[in-house]
Amino acid sequence: MILPKFTYAKPKSIDESIELYKMHDGRICYLAGGTDVIPLAKQRLVAPDVVVDLKNIEELKIIEKNDKWLTIGANVTLFDLKKYPLTKEFFKGLYESLDETSCETLQMRGTIGGNILQNTRCLFYNKSIEWRTARGFCFKMGGTLCNAVPKGNVCFSNYCSDNALSLITLSTELEFVGLKGKRRVAIENIFSGNGVKPFNLEPGEILTRICIPLEKNRGAYEKLRVRGSIDYTLISVAVALKGDGGKVSIGGVGPAPLSYHLNNTEESSIEELANKAYSDAKTVANTVLTPAYRKRMARVLVKKAIKRSLQEGN
Amino acid sequence: MDTINVSFQINGDEVMLDVKPYETLLETIRERLSLTGAKEACGLGACGACTVLLDGIPVRSCLVLTAEVDGADIITIEGMKKNGKLHPLQESFMKNGAVQCGFCTSGMIMTAKAFLDSNKSPARKDIVKAISSNVCRCTGYKKIVDAVEEAAQKMQS
Q: Which of A148, A217, A275, B109 has a beta carbon 3.0–4.6 Å from A240's, enabling a disulfide?
């Protein structure tokens, strides 16, 4: 499969990268591991003038901790983060979602920043240009229809990051640098809920740091997929428990993750949350499994993930 | 469009090339260097048939731009043979009948090599997990796992 024509730049700093964004009026694409963006380019779903490779930027490769935060550079690979001892010890749910991401070879190349900012997916969107032209361009391609839901008037594409869900349950904050400077936001707030443009990002912004509060959690991650490896999620649930309560996040259904607070871990509260997840999971026919099955699995996986987190002790 | 000058080591040889900025490492390896062991199957990073080692780490060469590998050390299946002798993994794949149509084989062996380099005495379940990065359309996984297991034992002794 042949890539579209573009030029390539490998800046050494974030400022230099943002300069390139300005110089080319935003017609660039940032590259980290390339496991999301290169397939998109091959299918002509992105067509940048310049690919700006961020892998030479040292400050994006750090992992450091102080009393309150674990700070991870956006270019740390999923595999390196999984092998970082503190991940498994403090954030079991994140450890499991890293382990469940695609396969180990792609974990060694894919980065945590790229994983969070991966584009949303749909059975009718992630296709070749020829296939999409024959079918008709959907909302996400700049067209006026939805190929998954007849007469649908919004985009139902699914956000498939495994790790963003775990990071939501851990109350993670993200740092961005862009044309307007630096900002720090709670990870939940980066999602627009609009599948056409899934992230609330300012022009030229680069995700630089992922900051997780350094508190030990009990957690688990449950993922539904057809094969045990490589596949994207078809519905996932992440859980992190602290004390009597905790947070639950559900992904792979629609353009933004769903988030919930679990007030206590009594059977009735778990049941209530599982039922709420079932009614909130608006699955449509845009993956390889039926919407009804994926919806039912919302309830099953919520209960399973919470129960597994509880079994962890502490 | 301007080309980019890159130099890297491949199977122990230094090469210096002018490549297109949108050229993948797989295209360079196969079409410029005529090393056709790495295969293109899905072209989207899903199957692993194009796996090569980039500084010892297995990568999908169809997802890597050649411009990215300036200064790197690359090993392909052609570089596995040492002093005219096949690598134990290659021997073991032949002996165990782990090659069916053969299209996934070079990728499987490169993934397995990276795995065995960091894990000298793996459990069978760890081998299964390691090679689950690669897809075999013939579904001959049992023999592949057998072959990696035997090669691991041989490499230890």
A: A217
Contact B131/B112 with Cβ under 8 angstroms? yes
Contact A55 B68 (CB under 8 A): yes
Helix or strand run (H / E) with residue A173: strand A173-178
Phi/psi at A275 (5° precision): -70, -35
Q: Which CATH class is domain A58-117+158-311?
A: alpha beta
Counting as low any pLDDT under 70, the low residues of chain A are: 313-314
The verdict on a CB contact (< 8 Å) between B67 and A8 is yes
CB B155 within 8 A of CB B116: yes
Give the C-alpha separation, B125 to B128, whole Å.
Answer: 5
- Structure-derived torsion over alpha carbons of residues A283, A287, A288, A292, reported in degrees to the nearest 10: 10
CB A116 within 8 A of CB A30: no
Helix (H) or strand (E) holding A68: none
Residue A6: its chain B contacts at CB < 8 A? 21-22
Best mutation target, B20, B24, B51, B65, to test chain A (most A CBs within 10 A)? B65
**Cα-Cα-Cα-Cα dihedral sign, residues B146, B147, B152, B156:** positive
Tell me if chain B has a CB within 8 Å of the CB of A6.
yes
Domain CATH for B33: 3.10.20.30
Task: Break chain A into its structural domains and give their ranges.
Answer: 1-56, 58-117+158-311
pLDDT of B51: 98
Domain that holds residue B113: 88-156
Q: Is B111 on the interface with A (CB under 8 A)?
A: yes
State the pLDDT at residue A313. Answer: 61
**Shortest CB distance from A105 goes to which of B2, B58, B68?**
B58
Q: Which residues of B touch A53 (CB under 8 A)?
A: 65, 67-68
8 Å CB contact of B1 and A5: yes
Residue entry with tokens 């894990």: B119
Which residue, among A87, A18, A35, A113, has the nearest Cα to B48 in the 3D structure? Answer: A35
CATH architecture of A1-56: 2-Layer Sandwich (3.30)
Q: Supply the CATH number for residue B105's domain.
A: 1.10.150.120
Low-confidence ranges of chain B (pLDDT < 70): 1
The answer to whether A69 contacts chain B (CB < 8 Å) is no
At residue A244, the pLDDT reads 86
Asked if B25 reaches chain A (Cβ–Cβ under 8 Å), the answer is no
Ordered DSSP codes for A238-273: EEEEETTEEEEEEESSSSS-EEEEE----HHHHHHH
pLDDT score for A98: 98
Using the structure block, give the residue that is written with the tokens 């899903």.
B46
